[in-house]
Amino acid sequence: METTLAEAFKQTSYQLSGHSPRNLEVLKQALDQANGETISDMYGKGEIIEDFQNKMAGFLGKEAAVFFPSGTMAQQIALRIWADEKQVKRVAYHPLSHLEIHEEDGLKELHYIDTVLLADEDRVIGLDDIKAMDKDIACLLLELPQREIGGQLPTFETLEAISVYCRKQNIRLHLDGARLLETLPYYKKSASDICALFDSVYISMYKGLGGVAGAILAGETSFTEASKVWKRRHGGDIISLYPYILSADYYFEKRRGKMGQYYQDAVQLAAFFNQCPATMTIPEVPVSNMFHVHVAKRKEEIESLLAAIYQETELGLTSYLKETGDESCYFEVSVGDSFQTIPKPVLERTFKLFGKGINELTVHE
Amino acid sequence: METTLAEAFKQTSYQLSGHSPRNLEVLKQALDQANGETISDMYGKGEIIEDFQNKMAGFLGKEAAVFFPSGTMAQQIALRIWADEKQVKRVAYHPLSHLEIHEEDGLKELHYIDTVLLADEDRVIGLDDIKAMDKDIACLLLELPQREIGGQLPTFETLEAISVYCRKQNIRLHLDGARLLETLPYYKKSASDICALFDSVYISMYKGLGGVAGAILAGETSFTEASKVWKRRHGGDIISLYPYILSADYYFEKRRGKMGQYYQDAVQLAAFFNQCPATMTIPEVPVSNMFHVHVAKRKEEIESLLAAIYQETELGLTSYLKETGDESCYFEVSVGDSFQTIPKPVLERTFKLFGKGINELTVHE
């Protein structure tokens, strides 16, 4: 069944999420702009990497920045540095943090760092959660937006209060900003406004920005210099990172100004879903370019319905569905350039068929 | 002074070592061959990565292979897997192993694995060294060729004896084959002939092969599957590795057949150096494409001499010199495509000037 939905999705002409297919063109386009005689970075040195690091440090309002091949590596290292600084091998984060569920326990297996899980799985961390926790932790990690619950955000005032509290308690505050740029239109803040509240910051170059891969870790110079030593230990001090850096820079410039559009599109799109029976988005009104769509129907039924709709309208809503416990399922929507390419009649027809299909499922129950 | 030599080297038209400048053209050429609509690998899955892994497994005569962003990551992981298997957190290798001197102690700081250093710094590990060591180690790592001593090699018979001995003693044998292909013409063996002696094998895609970056780790499927879990923990399970994979494949095909030529060129070139006064190569007769050139003169004197020669002949012998304790210095030569582009008169004139210059230094002493 899953294959059928994924297969039907592959045949569609339009897609709700993302920018364009993740194919070699993504790199080719970025490289076409670059002079072939430009010399590679070499183990973290050279103009290509240093210039981009300086640029991102400026953008994030931090003293220095380091380019990493992945956020997994960058964030484990950030937490290790803060754990070593305080000589406390314990950090706190959300139960659905990327580190807790997607990294094969690298933080524990490689760095022997314990974790304290804050808040419930279905809401973001608040100041009360932090006040209630055992204070003997080196660092608190906040993910903005909280991806696994549809991209929810605390208010900026909550962030400020958490920041003040952590500084008083001598707890380092780290930002998992994989999708930081995507939150700026909602917060109506600059990246450096947000980052000023944190001791260390990670952003991804391939989520909303759509680069090939790579991450930036930023903070004070003493922190970033320590991170370079750990980057080498992790095997991330790759002789040439330029394929990632060039594409990161190219798509950063191409899309940094489009985050407001993605956010507005997400709000509009979520409203479409919320008008369909048995369907709700989380958050109900998105606060970034992303949200989750929950349908209170059996996964197999919705798979069949979607596959049929894709064939008729050529618009793919999702390539997969995830089952939730109680006869329901969900998928993630992450708005990028693709959304604007969908003809309005195609979008309207798709939602009409989706609503009608769910109604028919309900009648037959 | 160092800047002067490096600057003079940059201005040369010909270089003794390497293939061509490490610039963006290296990637552009590899990408030009590829279809832009080819879909990226995704976190270790997809045709691009799986096809290349299968190809390299076949080439190395192993059950399976995994593409890594770096050898540093691949080798630490190999040793961790063998240490966990035996529940012994100790491995053995040469005192000048890459892991011991170039990785900021990642093996110790990340994996808490102790090391036993075998043999003297200036020679390769022999069977006697292994017989004499404490047997309570999980794995022995052999580097072929031993780069930091000019690329020396044990005989194939010694390798066979070490392999038999380690199997009897229940010690895993890992091959640091960063430059494995470069040894095959000397051994007159296939890659799989050599790899059959080892439990696990790493090869680099950017040394003699000249790719952009990346490494292959190969072994039995149970080993490579475990390595994928550790790759994710290290932050090496990058969403898209294709820039490295495509270039690895392109330059593997372009240069795998040229290793015999590089080896012969290195032998010829070492003879030129050995004819110069106060100059000797290690090994005296190379056994791969590489060797070290030792000059029994002060580093500053040789820097000035070389910079002057570069200006006159436009042939760069090295961009740096390393001081050794006793008023002498050395540099590494690693033969690739560049050597064949040097006009014979330029080569001869350069060595004539080099020999003459050293003689004059001696007269003035």
Count all strands of chain A and give the number: 13
Interface with most residues: A-B, 51 and 51 residues
Distance between the termini of chain A: 20 Å
**Tally of discrete structural domains of chain A:** 2
Q: Which structural class is indicated by helix and strand composition of chain A?
A: alpha/beta
| CATH-defined superfamily of the largest domain in chain A | Type I PLP-dependent aspartate aminotransferase-like (Major domain)
Quaternary status of these chains?
homodimer
Determine the strand fraction of chain A and express it as a percent band: 15-25%
Q: Main beta sheet of chain A, described?
A: 7 strands, mixed
In the CATH hierarchy, what is the class of the largest domain in chain A? Answer: Alpha Beta
Shape by Cα distribution of chain A: globular
Question: Rg of chain A, please?
Answer: 21 Å
Domain Aromatic amino acid beta-eliminating lyase/threonine aldolase (chains A, B): 41-293
Protein name (chains A, B): Low specificity L-threonine aldolase
Cofactor (chains A, B): pyridoxal 5'-phosphate
Family (chains A, B): Belongs to the threonine aldolase family.
SSE diagram, text form:
The structure is a homodimer of 365-residue chains.
Chain A lengths: L1 H9 L3 E2 L9 H8 L14 H14 L3 E5 L2 H16 L3 E4 L4 H4 L4 H6 L2 E4 L9 H6 L6 E5 L12 H13 L3 E6 L2 H8 L3 H5 L4 E5 L10 E5 L1 H14 L7 H14 L3 H16 L4 E4 L7 E6 L3 H15 L1 E2 L5 E3 L3 E7 L9 H21 L1
Note the main attributes of this structure.
4-stranded antiparallel β-sheet, 16% strand, Aspartate Aminotransferase, domain 1, 15 helices, 365 residues, Aspartate Aminotransferase, domain 2, globular, homodimer
